[in-house]
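A.,

Following up on our hallway conversation. Structure tokens first:
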């Protein structure tokens, strides 16, 4: 500013500082580098040859610093940033589309990355700090993770419409599943009522594969209501007794400071989930 104004007094005015403070700052810089940058006479102030060479570098540094501060402020004000999350497929495909649409409208400068995974995979991704947070059921209690309840959905029997159990219009007892071919998944193995069903020789952790096997009328399985495909006409679902639910949590690392972008996404999910859950008949926890 001294070089641009050709005066310590005018530079001080532009910078809203006192003239002695500006003079001292220049002197300290010159003393530190061991070179004179400003030539002072009784009538004028100008840059030395070294000062002239250094001036464009100094201007670039100031621009870079201002840009860095601007970027940080944009991040803190949630005008830019990046958020990553891992979510179980049933939540990702049903509840989240509308929520993400609202988030994108409110925070257009924030980039979003979403991976769908099993509850076990979601928990592991958060544990390993691969994502900012996760949404899924609790695979196993973990001391380094925080589980904040979001909602619950009831478990339902799912089978082909020509399967013998599909002819029942009333709720089906878990004990009845011991007499049919049961298709296990990673999810069914964690259920409290699973002991009522005998050992299964089929295990299909991938939901797409499971649905294909159900459509072939290979056997029956159990899914949370949110995961039951509503658009496949050859599959039907039935209530189970005793009733059992799947709890869905927001999963974060304890003591971990989330970025403003991740906090903005979590705030949106927390605010919008009750309305979306009501559409699907889910239980708010």
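Then the amino acids I'd put at each of the 285 positions:
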């Amino acid at each position: 500013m001294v070089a641009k104004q050709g005066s310590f007094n005018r530079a001080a005015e532009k910078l809203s500082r006192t003239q002695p403070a500006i003079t001292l700052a220049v002197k300290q810089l010159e003393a530190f580098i061991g070179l004179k940058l400003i030539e002072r006479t009784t009538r004028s102030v100008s840059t030395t040859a070294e000062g002239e060479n250094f001036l464009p570098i100094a201007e670039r540094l100031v621009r870079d610093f201002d840009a860095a501060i601007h970027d940080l402020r944009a991040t803190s004000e949630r005008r830019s940033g990046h958020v990553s999350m891992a979510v179980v497929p049933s939540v990702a495909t049903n509840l989240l589309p509308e929520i993400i649409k609202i988030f994108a409208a409110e925070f257009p400068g924030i980039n979003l990355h979403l991976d769908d995974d099993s509850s076990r995979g979601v928990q592991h991704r958060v544990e390993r700090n691969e994502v900012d947070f996760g949404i899924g059921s609790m695979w196993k209690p973990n001391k380094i993770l925080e589980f904040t309840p979001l909602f619950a959905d009831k478990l339902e029997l799912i089978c082909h419409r020509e399967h013998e159990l599909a002819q029942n219009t009333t709720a089906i007892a878990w004990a009845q599943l011991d007499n049919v071919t049961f298709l296990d998944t990673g999810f069914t193995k964690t259920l409290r009522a699973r002991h009522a069903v005998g050992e299964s020789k089929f295990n299909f952790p991938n939901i797409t594969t499971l649905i294909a096997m159900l459509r072939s009328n290979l056997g029956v399985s159990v899914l949370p209501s949110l995961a039951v495909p509503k658009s496949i006409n050859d599959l039907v679902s039935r209530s189970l007794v005793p009733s059992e639910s799947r709890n869905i949590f927001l999963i974060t690392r304890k003591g971990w400071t989330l970025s403003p972008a991740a906090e903005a996404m979590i705030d949106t999910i927390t605010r919008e989930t009750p309305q979306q859950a009501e559409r699907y008949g889910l239980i708010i926890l």
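The chain has a mean pLDDT of 89. Curious whether your intuition agrees with the design.

B.
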